[in-house]
Every structure is written in structure tokens, then in C-alpha cells.
Specification:
The complex is a heterodimer of chains A (329) and B (336). Chain A is built from 13 helices and 12 strands. By secondary structure, chain A is of the alpha/beta class. The radius of gyration of chain A is 21 Å and the shape is globular. A 7-stranded mixed sheet of chain B has the order 6-7-8-3-9-10-11, with helices on both faces. A 4-stranded antiparallel sheet of chain B has the order 2-1-4-5, with helices on one face. In chain B, β7 (184-188), α7 (196-213) and β8 (216-221) form a beta-alpha-beta unit. Classes of the chains: A alpha/beta (329), B alpha/beta (336).
């Protein structure tokens, strides 16, 4: 990429030390997000997608810790910063949107107070300027009668409206990166579509990079430019969204796509991947997907594949390795 | 459809009283507050058929499910299953016999299994309650068969629910529902707590079981794609009413009610056809004070004066098949 990526993650490793040994929840994850780009991170529960997000913003709950790798935000390394310095980056340079808007807003403070407080914590503004800016932001995220609603409490807003407020909160200090962790999962479909469009439009206008974590492939297909599919703590496949959805290279991605019921097409039976994702305590040797993979061969059970280039994507699968294609043919 | 359907729901309504206590009402001079969760819902399910209800949160679909299985008394209307009225006192004895033939599968397999019971006892509970087996050996045999039927191992009977993953737990719930040899299953969001790959396993299992055991399903979900995959006919609910009911193919190829169109448009598109989307305006109104007339009128693009005054009836649209019905003035008048 010619320009510096807004976010660059290199070989990230997140560990949880437990009495029965160390669990590796995120293992050797690397990706870049360009300014203005939306990178989708998908995977099933326990794949490590949310932990990747929390590791980037430095909010891992102990005993979880970043055990290796680098996180670089616009050229500045942020994974080894002291807590105080990280506090200034969170909210200012990285905005966050979480699944449940009710838990990300303080129920005891007016919506306006929360936005104004956040603006003033990061930008040198007077109370009055900050309030004007807060109203501007609320209008921008589509809240009708923002001058009046700014003095409302979170419980006076509906779910979709609350998520709009959270979005305003995330954008208020003009961050370089927004991490959105399942931003639409708690919302109804009609509201979900509104929020996705809004997130996409606002970030495109500002050139904000977005890391969109979700388990919903539909949301990714509508929103993301590129997508990373995670399985058992590692990236199984990463590439342009069209290629990953239409012609995936990794058998897991293919299975995942086949298992999603669609509102078009006429498939009678859904493809099903046998079994379920391994627990962190029992990740199989070799490729973590090999016990469920219909194409597994000897090498998959012995060696763990790294991401290998194929078409415009990278896939961690021995099937796409040039020499194994020869060996199998 | 045959002349008398297996399950028939007629004019079903449920009102919840959500007012404050009497003293508060007197002191604060407040009126009684009534929440009309379900209003005048009618549909029929033929034997071995799957009918689904879709809708967003607060549309009343789960309340309908609870009234159909008999967990919640309706405030109006009737549910008739195989000729027996679920809620009339006259049919009390027949109803007892009917109970065995109806079972329910719930959304959250973590909350619907008793964590202190072994899986075997959980599945055997309906068998014991209805006295379907002679002795222990027969119960054990039966439980083993059920576990095999849902794709688990008979040896799993001695384990506890926490030893299973979400998908396996939902299989246990299905085994429990099947243990009384029911003919009619009501599934309330059976897969929404599960990951997609596991969801596919459960949906496939439910269809296999339907073919094998000749089950009839009422399937409740908010997910249009799931419903399309499972059901032969679909009822779309909005704020306690069915606004459109149609065969699956027809609903997805030619939705008539503006809300059904909007809902189909809003679903994120995996096929990436890049079809233009009409943006959905507004949100579901508060069910305690719904707008007068058609409840959808504040969000409707085809709204007119009549919609704000009169509640539209569910009736066949012009040029539609006999099994399709829409509750919309604009559709009835042929304007859209």
C-alpha cells in the first residue's frame, strides 16, 4: 500500500495464563487497514475476533495479555504505551462502538453531558463550543430535534437512536480508527440497515478507518471493503470482500458461506460443517480446522499452514500451497 | 388446504395490563395502561406443514407462540388443535390428552435446560410425566434412541448440560421435545443464540425430523432468511397484528404489504447484487400507544388519510393467490 495504513497489526498474540497452562486466544494475527477502509472481521463465537479488538484498544481484562506482536496506529506503535498515554489515544484517535448501546452509555447522565465530556477530554474547547459541536454531531447521525434530545437521558432513546448516540460519541474527537464490535447485533433488521449505512457514510466522508467485528456475513457484504475470517484464534483467510464471499479459498470460509440461509436462491439443504470449533484448551495439531475439513490430508494434521497468497487474497490452507497442489494432482 | 386444518388460530388477542399499582394511579391521576401485545391474529397450519411468523422485536410473535402451546391464556380468540379448543373449559379433558402432542423448543439452550439434572433425566421427564414407558429399562432405551435421533451418543445421557456446546444443547432440547412423541412443535427462535454453522446443523436436523416423523411446525423467528429456508407459509407481524400472510415463494418474490417490502429490502444482501435499497424510515412505535388506524402508517411510503383512521383488515389482495392475504388499504385499493 502506498500510504501509511491507519492501523497495522503484526503477529499479534493474546494469551490467558491459567492454572492448567497458557491459553492462546489470538495467535499470530496480522493485518492492515488503510484510511477510509472498512475491514470486516468475521468468525463464530470464540474465534478471537473481539479479543483482537480489545487488544488493539488496550482494554484486555487481566489475566489476558498481549504476549507478542506490534500494533501501529498511523505510524506510532501503541501496544507498549503506558496506561496513561493509552488513555489519551482511546476515544481521541480510536473510537469505539460496542454491541449493546445501553451499556456503553451511562444511564445517570444526560446524553449531551456524555458527549460534551468526551469532546472536552480530547479537544481544547469551551463548554459552549463543545455543546454546539455535540448538537452538530447528533444532527449528523440523524437524531431528529437534536437541540432538544441532547438533554435527554439514554433511557429516553430507543435502541437504534442509542446506537446513533454511541456513534456520535465515537466520532466526536475525529479518530483515525473506529473499532465497531457487533454494532448492529442487538438491533432489529430495519434499524440495523440504517446504522450500517450511517457508519459507512460517516467514515467514508472523514476518511476514518473502520474495523468492523461481526458474526453476520450479510453486514460484512454490505459494508466492508476487505474481510478477514478468523478461526480458533487465527486468520483463516483475508481478502477483498467479493472474492471471499463469492469464491473463497479456505474450506472453512466456503463451509461458513454455505451454511448461511439466504433470502435468494433455492438451496434445499444448507451445507453443514460437521462438529464445532475446538476449545482453546484442545486446538488440534497442524491446521486447527483439519478434523472438520472435508479436504484434510496428511500435511494438514502435521504442519500448521501460514497465510499464503492466492489470487487477491491470503489463505492459511495447504490446499492453496503451490507444491501441495502438485502433490495432490 | 383441507377443510379442517390441524392447527387453527382465530382472532387471537392478548392484552397485558402494565399500569402502575392502584394507589399510584389514584395519587398520580394516571390512567390504566394496556399493552396490546397481540390483536386479532388468525392463521391455520395443515398437518406436516411449517408455518412461520416473522417480525421485529415487540411484534408479538413470541406471545402468539406461548398462547398456541397453552403457556399463556389469551384475552380473546381461540386456538383449536385437531378439533380441541386449547382454552375452552368444556374441552378440559380432551386438552389433557392433547398436551402430550404439543411441545415447544425455546431460544436459549443455556436457560432452558436444568443445569442440575443429567441429560438423561431431562429427556426422560416428559416420558415419566405422561407415563409413556413401563419401566426404567424402557425409559433408558427410549432416551438412547432419542439421543441417537438428534445426532448425539446414547452415552451422553449420563452427562450434565454444561458439558455440551450450544448446538449440542439445542439438540438435547429437541430430543426432550420429541420424547413425548408430539405431532406439533412450536419453535421460538430456535437458532438465534447459535453460530451460523451450528444454526445450519440445527435447521437441517429439524427438517429431517419433520420428514421422518411427520411433524407440524410453528416456527417463530426474526430472521427472514431462516424462515424462508424452513417454512411453506409465512406470516409477517407488525405491532401485534399479522400484516401479510403468504406462501413463502410468493412473499419473497412479490411482497405486497409496504412493511413486508421494507423488511425484505433491509436484509443485508449476501449475494452482493448491488440492488438499490430503499432506506427504512423511523422505528416501531410504542405498543402502549400505537398510532390510530394502521399501525404502520407513520413509516409507510404509501400512507393516505384512510390509513390514519381505519385499521385495515387482513384480506386477499387483488390478483393474489387464494392463500395470500394482506392488511393494507393501499393494496386493497390496488394503489400499490
Amino acid at each position: 500500500m502506498p500510504e501509511t495504513p491507519a492501523l497495522s497489526v503484526r503477529n499479534l498474540r493474546v494469551e490467558f495464563p491459567t492454572r492448567r497452562g497458557t491459553l492462546v486466544a489470538v495467535d499470530d494475527v496480522s493485518f492492515d487497514i488503510a484510511p477510509g477502509e472498512v475491514l470486516g472481521i468475521v468468525g463464530e463465537s470464540g474465534a478471537g475476533k473481539s479479543l483482537t479488538g480489545t487488544a488493539i484498544i488496550g482494554l484486555l481484562e487481566p489475566p489476558g495479555r498481549v504476549a507478542g506482536g506490534e500494533i501501529v496506529l498511523n505510524g506510532q506503535r501503541i501496544d507498549n504505551l503506558p496506561r496513561e498515554a493509552m488513555r489519551h489515544i482511546r476515544g481521541k484517535r480510536i473510537g469505539m462502538v460496542f454491541q449493546d448501546p445501553l451499556t456503553s452509555l451511562n444511564p445517570l447522565y444526560r446524553v449531551g453531558e456524555q458527549i460534551i465530556e468526551t469532546i472536552r477530554a480530547h479537544l481544547p474547547m469551551s463548554e459552549r463550543e463543545a455543546r454546539a459541536r455535540a448538537i452538530e454531531l447528533l444532527i449528523e447521525v440523524g437524531i431528529q430535534g437534536a437541540e432538544r434530545r441532547i438533554d435527554g437521558y439514554p433511557h429516553e432513546f430507543s435502541g437504534g437512536m442509542r446506537q446513533r448516540v454511541v456513534l456520535a460519541l465515537a466520532l466526536c474527537a475525529e479518530p483515525d480508527l473506529i473499532i465497531a464490535d457487533e454494532p448492529t447485533t442487538a438491533l432489529d433488521v430495519s434499524i440495523q440497515a440504517q446504522i450500517i449505512q450511517l457508519l459507512k457514510r460517516l467514515c467514508q466522508e472523514r476518511g476514518t478507518a473502520v474495523m468492523l467485528i461481526t458474526h453476520d456475513m450479510g453486514v460484512i457484504a454490505e459494508t466492508a471493503n476487505r474481510v478477514a475470517v478468523m478461526y480458533a484464534g487465527r486468520i483463516a483467510e483475508i481478502g477483498p470482500v467479493r472474492e471471499v464471499i463469492k469464491s473463497a479459498h479456505h474450506p472453512y470460509t466456503r463451509g461458513l458461506m454455505g451454511s448461511i440461509p439466504s433470502i435468494e436462491g433455492t438451496n434445499d439443504r444448507l451445507t453443514q460443517i460437521p462438529g464445532s470449533m475446538p476449545r482453546l484448551t484442545a486446538i488440534p495439531k497442524g491446521c486447527a480446522f483439519n478434523p472438520r475439513c472435508p479436504h484434510a490430508f496428511d500435511r494438514c494434521r502435521r504442519e500448521r499452514p501460514d497465510l499464503m497468497p492466492v489470487d487477491h487474497s491470503l489463505a492459511a490452507c495447504w490446499l492453496v500451497a503451490p507444491q501441495s497442489a502438485e502433490a495432490r494432482s | 388446504m383441507t377443510d379442517s386444518p390441524f392447527v387453527e388460530v382465530k382472532g387471537l388477542s392478548r392484552v397485558f395490563d402494565v399500569s402502575k399499582p392502584w394507589l399510584n394511579r389514584v395519587l398520580e391521576q394516571e390512567e390504566r395502561k394496556l399493552l396490546r401485545a397481540v390483536t386479532d391474529v388468525s392463521f391455520a397450519i395443515g398437518k406436516r406443514e411449517t408455518v412461520a411468523l416473522v417480525g421485529e422485536s415487540g411484534s408479538g410473535k413470541s406471545t402468539v407462540a406461548k398462547m398456541v402451546v397453552g403457556l399463556l391464556p389469551p384475552t380473546g380468540g381461540s386456538v383449536t388443535i385437531d378439533g380441541v379448543d386449547m382454552w375452552s373449559i368444556a374441552d378440559a379433558e380432551k386438552r389433557q390428552a392433547l398436551r402430550r402432542r404439543i411441545q415447544m423448543i425455546f431460544q436459549d439452550p443455556y436457560a432452558s435446560l436444568n443445569p442440575r439434572w443429567r441429560v438423561g433425566s431431562i429427556i426422560a421427564d416428559p416420558i415419566r410425566t405422561f407415563g409413556l414407558a413401563k419401566d426404567r429399562a424402557e425409559i433408558e432405551h427410549e432416551v438412547g434412541e432419542l439421543l441417537r435421533l438428534v445426532g448425539l451418543d446414547p452415552a451422553d445421557a449420563s452427562k450434565y448440560p454444561h458439558e455440551f456446546s450450544g448446538g449440542q444443547r439445542q439438540r438435547i432440547c429437541i430430543a426432550r421435545a420429541l420424547s413425548s412423541k408430539p405431532e406439533f412443535l412450536v419453535a421460538d427462535e430456535p437458532t438465534s443464540a447459535l453460530d451460523v454453522s451450528v444454526q445450519a446443523q440445527i435447521l437441517n436436523l429439524m427438517r429431517e425430523l419433520q420428514d421422518r416423523l411427520g411433524l407440524t411446525y410453528l416456527f417463530i423467528s426474526h430472521n427472514l432468511a431462516v424462515v424462508r429456508h424452513m417454512a411453506a407459509r409465512i406470516g409477517v407481524m407488525y405491532l401485534g397484528r399479522v400484516v401479510e400472510i403468504a406462501p413463502t415463494q410468493e412473499l419473497f418474490s412479490a411482497p405486497r404489504h409496504p412493511y413486508a417490502r421494507m423488511l425484505l429490502d433491509a436484509v443485508p444482501d449476501l449475494a452482493m447484487t448491488g440492488r438499490p435499497r430503499k432506506m427504512v424510515e423511523g422505528e416501531i412505535p410504542n405498543p402502549i400507544s400505537p398510532p390510530p388506524g394502521c399501525a404502520f402508517n407513520p413509516r409507510c411510503p404509501a400512507v393516505m388519510d384512510r390509513c390514519r383512521r381505519e385499521v385495515p383488515e387482513l384480506e386477499a389482495a387483488p390478483k393474489a393467490s387464494a392463500t395470500q392475504a394482506t392488511a393494507c388499504h393501499a393494496v386493497a385499493e390496488g394503489r400499490i
